[in-house]
Amino acid sequence: MDIIANYGTTLVLVAALFGFLMAWGIGANDVANAMGTSVGTKSLTIRQAIIIAMIFEFAGAYLAGGEVTATIRNGIIDSNAFVDSPDLLVLGMIASLLAAGTWLILASYFGWPVSTTHSIIGAIVGFAVVSIGPEAVQWGKFGGIVGSWVVTPAISGVIAYFMFISVQKLIFNTDDPLSNAKRYVPFYMFLTAMVICLVTIKKGLTHVGLHLTNGEGILLSTAISIAVAFAGWIYIRGQKYNPQDDSKMHFANVEKVFGILMVITACAMAFAHGSNDVANAIGPLSAVASIVASGGEIAGKATIAWWILPLGGIGIVIGLATMGEKVMATVGTGITHLTPSRGFAAQLATAATVVIASGTGLPISTTQTLVGAVMGVGLARGIAALNLGVLRNIVVSWIITLPAGAILSIAIFYVLQACFS
Fold it and tell me: Is pLDDT above 70 for 72?
């Protein structure tokens, strides 16, 4: 308690700095995942992807990032264990932000797409164990986290595989791919809009104050999706293509349509990501600000101060703009060769898996979901289409993310204790 009383303002400023660093890491790593397929398929240039992500990620973080946030990320530690020593929780949260942010920036430098959620969870667990003891950690939560390394990539991979197979059979492997594209693409547009609407409603709009029941959400999503499919049908019919063009030109025209779908999906995923994953940076920061403001009282929920959401949104945008290119390259071109139709299948499978996870409570990493979907699309062309060396490095980086976050957090926690005690 003495630390909070004597250094309260300093602690909040340090937490804000490290929270900004964490948001920077999220932008450099996770946002690059959302835009990687669009860049890899050349549906967007890197500059266009950065501009779009800056707009939609910031909008998601600022408009739908939440009025309240859980002080302890994902309930992974028991806040009651820190009631008698709130200063340990404050120092631990600050250490966690710096540890997770450092790991994310390091991973981004090497082009590894890792989980921001797992980074912060590993960091929080690390300081909790050395400050209070193993009993402060809710170890049951870890089964779901470890399981998600296999389950979520598998689900998205299977969906992406069959999605791309259906596109091949219904459109590309036919005698007249352009005519079949006009017939079936509106259906894919309906599916895309449906999944995007459900993702946005599940992960974004509740924080704005728009609370829809599952039934209302499905009805609204269906109405919007029908309108999008109809608009898509009109757009495709209005396009003039030369019937004398060779098959390559027909394929190129079909891919252009899927390129438009990719851009729309990327915008929606960026908004949903900003609204959801900004909590990895602002959750611990809000906890510190709340505990200091209350003089050491630990609440289950913390109201977010007005300056915290913009701080997280700006950090995400700067991280993407300065360091996002390498992870974009890994996801977009390193795992397998992507075309707009393949990238669309991967992006739609990722969004669909997010919806499934939200509805079932399955622990999920957007990063691992997208990598699994890209793998699924690659497997549709055979195992030789995958770059197994890149995949090996990605999986290893996933496994070491939790212990890396924990070890860094423990070291930083001891340094902070020495500085403030």
Answer: no
Answer whether residue 69 shows pLDDT above 70.
no
Return the pLDDT at 50: 82
Q: List CB contacts of 88: < 8 A, sequence separation 6 or more.
A: 82, 131, 132
The angle formed by the CA atoms of residues 102, 104 and 107, to the nearest 5 degrees, is 110
Pair 190, 228: CB distance under 8 Å = yes
Q: Return the closest-CA partner of residue 270 out of 188, 366, 359, 394.
A: 366
The 3-state DSSP class for residue 337 equals: coil
Q: Nearest-5° angle of CA 270, CA 271, CA 274? A: 85
- The Cα–Cα gap between 112 and 331 comes to 9
Distance between CA 48 and CA 401 in Å, rounded?
A: 30
Q: Residue 68: its pLDDT value, please?
A: 41
Residue 354 has pLDDT above 80, yes or no: no
- Of 38-47, 252-261, 351-360, 399-408, least confident by mean pLDDT is 351-360
Ordered alpha helix ranges (H), 168-213: 177-200, 206-208
Do 70 and 301 form a contact (C-beta atoms < 8 A)? yes
CA distance 309 to 304: 8
Q: How far is CA 389 from CA 16, 203, 393, 421, in A?
A: 38, 34, 6, 47
Range ranked top by mean pLDDT from 214-218, 268-272, 380-384, 406-410? 406-410
Residue 158 phi, psi dihedral angles, 5° rounding: -65, -45
Burial class (CB in 10 A: 0-12, 13-18, 19+), 235: middle
According to DSSP, the residues that pair with 82 across neighbouring strands are none
Q: Which residue has the higher pLDDT, 241 or 320?
A: 320
CB contact at 8 A, 217 and 198:
yes
Q: Helix, strand, coil proportions of the chain in percent (round to 5)?
A: 80, 0, 15
Structural contact between residues 356 and 203, judged by C-beta atoms closer than 8 angstroms:
no
pLDDT tens per residue, range 45-54: 888 888 888 8
- Any residues with CB less than 8 A from the CB of 68 and at least 6 apart, and which? 301, 302, 303, 304
Q: For the residues of 138-150, what is the DSSP string, one character each? A: -THHHHHHHHHHH
Distances (CA, A) of 231 to 76, 187, 305, 367: 45, 11, 41, 31
